[in-house]
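Moderator note: this is an archived Q&A kept for reference. The question asked for a predicted structure of one protein chain; the sequence and the answer are reproduced below.
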Amino acid sequence: MEIINFDNENSLINQYMMQLRDVTVQNDRMRFRRNIERIGEVMAYEISKRLNYKTVTVQTPLAPCDCRAIADNVVLGTILRAGLPFHQGFLSYFDDAENSFVSAYRKYKEKEHFDIHIEYIASPRLDDKTLILVDPMLATGASMDLAYQALLTKGTPERIHIASVIASKQAIDYIKAHFPEDKTTVWVGTIDEVINSHSYIVPGLGDAGDLAFGIKE
């Protein structure tokens, strides 16, 4: 399984990541959403280099012209709600893609103990397609895995790309253990070493959903 960490190279993602982490910049909710969206756009471009292409002949005003177009059937899968601006970044580039949505949330049993619950799924058939599954924060990997298992009820994708803004080292190890090694690629803006007792990534950036859309009750 290939893990692509953009923190290991010079990229615009580094600039957007700095702003996402900065508490003085986070107060601008629109800018926070836009930075997540922009990271999605850059990752979409990078993932596009790994897809299969075909030759398509189009008619210009002067003559026929052979052009290259994506041959893969791409499905963008997103975990609600924090994934919405990230999803939009990918959709801006893969504008013909089909879309899947899965709700996953923490149901707390005690202050620091919770289960992940899936209550909603909307997806096309996934058989033989390329699934790009996005969630900005990959803390433990459990939500991503449960979302993937839910999507498997709609068929088995041929290729899987997992994209996150920030992942923990623990989550990367979890993904390696639970996703098909031969057909999964993981794309992350950066990898942080620690998650705390509440399963939040440290230093991370806080609660991405609350920062993007407001504090939930």
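Archived answer notes: The CA atoms of residues 34 and 85 lie 7 Å apart.
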